[in-house]
Design brief:
Number of strands: 4
Strand order of the largest sheet: 1-4-2-3
Radius of gyration: 16 Å
Helix content: 40-55%
Oligomer: single chain
């Protein structure tokens, strides 16, 4: 059986500024780097990873790099692990989303499995994309221990797929925090 260690990137500038990052390439903060270093130390102490994959967006890539280096590995970039393409929501503050997109942003907060970013991806599209990427990774490493550094909506979508949650059940499954390991 292949075991996945799924890590959400550490705190980013977008998290600090309360922005919907999407695919905008916000870097990690100093705290985010320290969080990633803690993840790396924890994983090194508890498991020998065979490979580390990461979204190519800098906040997840740097998190993956820190984890991989601790295990003498180089991360492998995978665009399938990217965060949701947020379209018109990209980089906007959450307060701006409430004002500019009240219906779609309310749906995001209340029933995320049915939500889509205006001009961007739906959660169902993210779920399908991330599932395809992770399935391909697992096929490359049968029986392995694999680290994956990704993003909040991508991870929540993946967890919903793994747990067999219907779109309307996703709202009941919690977000993972920055630098969390699943």
């Amino acid at each position: 059986m292949t075991t996945l260690y799924i890590v959400r990137h550490g705190q980013s500038v977008a998290n600090l500024e309360e922005r919907f990052a999407g695919r905008s390439d916000f870097p990690l903060t100093d705290l985010g780097r320290r969080q990633a270093a803690c993840d790396a130390a924890y994983l090194k102490e508890h498991v020998k990873l065979d490979a580390v994959y990461a979204s190519d967006l800098s906040r997840a890539w740097e998190t993956g790099m820190i984890i991989a280096r601790a295990q003498n590995l180089m991360p492998i970039a995978d665009k399938g692990l990217r965060e949701i393409w947020a379209g018109l929501w990209e980089s906007k503050k959450f307060s701006e989303l409430e004002a500019e997109f009240p219906e779609s942003y309310t749906l995001w907060k209340e029933n995320i499995g049915r939500a889509a970013c205006d001009g961007g991806e739906s959660i169902e599209q993210v779920r399908s994309r991330v599932w395809a990427a992770v399935t391909a990774i697992v096929k490359k490493h049968p029986g392995g221990h694999i680290g994956i550094a990704s993003h909040g909506a991508a991870i929540r979508s993946l967890e919903a797929e793994i747990r067999g949650l219907a779109p309307d059940e996703m709202k009941d499954y919690p977000w993972v925090g920055n630098a969390s390991i699943t």
